[in-house]
């Protein structure tokens, strides 16, 4: 059954996955070319100065909103057809535990995002580590990490919005989602999230409870 669920969700999301994978990968490659161009035709010192003086992650800022948009797009692709075409009702009535079913569906989306984010961030970090010190690499990583976690949070919360059966509930969920996701973009400085990143990951994981609440409300057939 688990394989069937995985295959079903992959069929729905594979086009979006490869498009997002390509876009974020190309942006990372573009950033790498910028770094290479600066090192070869200007000076490697300029790269160091950009990180040390600006202290904001420099080139990686080009990717700031892409993880967030990726999470939103993948959630819409995965759940909007399920809800609008009423397929989710059939999904929730198969002989399989509903909570586990929903957890599997969300987990597949999260794993796809992790693959996209891991590839795009990984190639950037690997190249950056060849031209600057490990301290600067870590600082740049810590600047960008909240953006990628925000993408996961956005995916989970948009799933909850899609499953919510009433417009009032959708508006409330959307406001809660906007307030929470804003936390990940408050400060661009490297050390801003060093002591809170674990807590943000835990809270992001707990957002699944909001999805469960929306699913139960949807199953009850609540309406405005």
Question: Helix and strand layout, with pairings?
Answer:
Blueprint: H1 2-42, H2 44-54, H3 66-84, H4 87-91, H5 98-128, H6 134-163, H7 167-182, H8 197-206, H9 208-220
Structure description:
The protein has 224 residues and is mainly α. The chain has one domain (2-220). The chain has 9 helices and no strands. The protein has helices at residues 2-42, 44-54, 66-84, 87-91, 98-128, 134-163, 167-182, 197-206, 208-220. The model has no long low-confidence stretch (mean pLDDT 84).
The number of distinct helices, counting runs of at least 4 residues, comes to 9
Number of domains: 1
Average of the residue pLDDT scores = 84
Q: For the terminal residues, how far apart are their CA atoms?
A: 35 Å
The arrangement of helices and strands along the chain is: HHHHHHHHH
Stretches with pLDDT under 50, minimum 5 residues: none
Helix percentage range: over 70%
Radius of gyration: 20 Å
> What's the story with the biggest beta sheet?
none
Q: Structural class, judged by helices and strands?
A: mainly alpha
> Would you count the extended β strands for me?
0
Shape: elongated
- Report the portion of residues in β strands: under 5%
């Amino acid at each position: 059954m688990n394989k069937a669920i995985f295959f079903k969700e992959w069929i729905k999301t594979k086009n979006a996955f490869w498009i997002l994978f390509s876009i974020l990968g190309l942006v990372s490659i573009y950033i790498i070319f910028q770094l290479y161009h600066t090192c070869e035709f200007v000076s490697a010192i300029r790269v160091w100065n950009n990180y040390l003086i600006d202290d904001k992650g420099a080139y990686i800022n080009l990717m700031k909103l892409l993880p967030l948009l990726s999470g939103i797009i993948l959630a819409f692709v995965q759940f909007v057809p399920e809800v609008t075409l009423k397929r989710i009702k059939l999904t929730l009535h198969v002989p399989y535990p509903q909570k586990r079913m929903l957890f599997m569906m969300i987990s597949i989306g999260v794993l796809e995002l992790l693959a996209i984010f891991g590839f795009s961030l990984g190639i950037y970090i690997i190249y950056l580590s060849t031209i600057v010190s490990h301290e600067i690499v870590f600082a740049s990583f810590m600047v960008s990490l909240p953006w990628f976690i925000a993408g996961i949070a956005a995916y989970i919360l948009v799933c909850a919005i899609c499953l919510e059966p009433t417009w009032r509930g959708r508006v409330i969920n959307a406001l809660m989602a906007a307030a929470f996701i804003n936390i990940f973009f408050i400060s661009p400085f490297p050390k801003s999230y060093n002591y809170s990143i674990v807590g943000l990951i835990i809270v992001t994981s707990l957002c699944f409870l909001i999805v469960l609440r929306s699913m139960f409300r949807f199953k009850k057939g609540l309406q405005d």
